[in-house]
Specification:
- The complex is a heterodimer of chains A (about 110) and B (about 120).
- Chain A has about 110 residues and is mainly beta.
- Chain A has strands at about 5, 10-15, 20-25, 30-35, 45-50, 55, 65-70, 75-80, 85-95, 105, 110-114.
- In chain A, a hairpin with a 2-residue loop joins strand 7 and strand 8 (about 75-80).
- The radius of gyration of chain A is 13 Å and the shape is globular.
- Chain B has strands at about 5, 10-15, 20, 25, 30-40, 45-50, 60, 65-70, 75-80, 90-95, 110, 115-119.
- In chain B, the strands form three sheets. In chain B, strands 2, 5, 6, 10, 11 and 12 form a six-stranded mixed beta sheet that branches. Chain B has a four-stranded antiparallel beta sheet with strand order 3-9-8-7, with no helix packed on it.
- In chain B, a hairpin with a 4-residue loop joins strand 8 (about 65-70) and strand 9 (about 75-80).
- The chains are: A mainly beta (about 110), B mainly beta (about 120).
Chain lengths: ~110, ~120
């Protein structure tokens, strides 16, 4: 059984489009995250949600809007896509919001903006 | 502020060689956790180990071992008798105490170290 799943795995789109990436975890975790990995493999947190409440928002353009319909899901919507948004986006989850628990990552969504 | 430095960007070894991946961290907190993750060519991020700041015991898991030294703020990772399947990018990461301890809840990653093990 997949613990943290993301859809789609690959996303190719044109500049200016709006797209969403979905994330689901079946681990019963309370906290979910979005990370961005750029072309140089650098991983940086974007958002963190705990029980549907936004906890971390790391200076991400407001074109990016996370939405958590329930604590098992954290979706990422991106408006007006730009070339620089091309990256791999990873969803992760952890049992608590304490920052001390291991974060388990999804397989990643490879976004290419043309 | 939190910072993780992986000074080596890329290492290439021949199978069966031992290899050590260095990780140096900076934090003002007394409560923190250190992690290693592996990213194989397939792209997923695989959790390897978590170590808290109060436990300086070294750990061994099969061919993998970790050396945590608070005195030098280092958390190094050694692969013994490397194999081709060990080829991956390895990330060291730091998480400070959560909101109850006045810290953040995010993982701060090093830039990663690409290991290539040749047959």
């Amino acid at each position: 059984d997949t613990a943290v799943s993301q859809t789609p795995k690959y996303l190719v789109t044109q500049m200016g489009n709006d797209k969403s990436i979905k994330c689901e975890q079946n681990l019963g975790h309370d906290t979910m995250y979005w990370y961005k990995q750029d072309s140089k493999k650098f991983l940086k947190i974007m958002f963190s949600y705990n029980n549907k409440e936004l906890i971390i928002n790391e200076t991400v353009p407001n074109r990016f809007s996370p939405k958590s319909p329930d604590k098992a899901h954290l979706n990422l919507h991106i408006n007006s896509l730009e070339l620089g948004d091309s990256a791999v986006y990873f969803c992760a989850s952890s049992p608590q919001r304490e920052g001390l628990e291991t974060q388990y990552f999804g397989p990643g969504t490879r976004l290419l903006v043309l | 502020a939190q910072k993780v430095t992986q000074a080596q960007t890329e290492i290439s070894v021949v199978e069966k060689e031992d290899v050590t991946l260095d990780c140096v961290y900076e934090t003002r907190d007394t409560t923190y956790y250190l992690f290693w993750y592996k990213q194989p060519p397939s792209g997923e991020l695989v959790f390897l180990i978590r170590r808290n700041s109060f436990d300086e015991q070294n750990e061994i898991s099969g061919r993998y071992s970790w050396n945590f030294q608070k005195s030098t703020s280092s958390f190094n990772f050694t692969i013994t008798a490397s194999q081709v399947v060990d080829s991956a990018v390895y990330f060291c990461a730091l998480s400070e105490g959560g909101w109850l301890q006045g810290g953040s809840e995010k993982l701060v990653f090093g830039k990663g170290m690409k290991l290539t093990v040749n047959p």
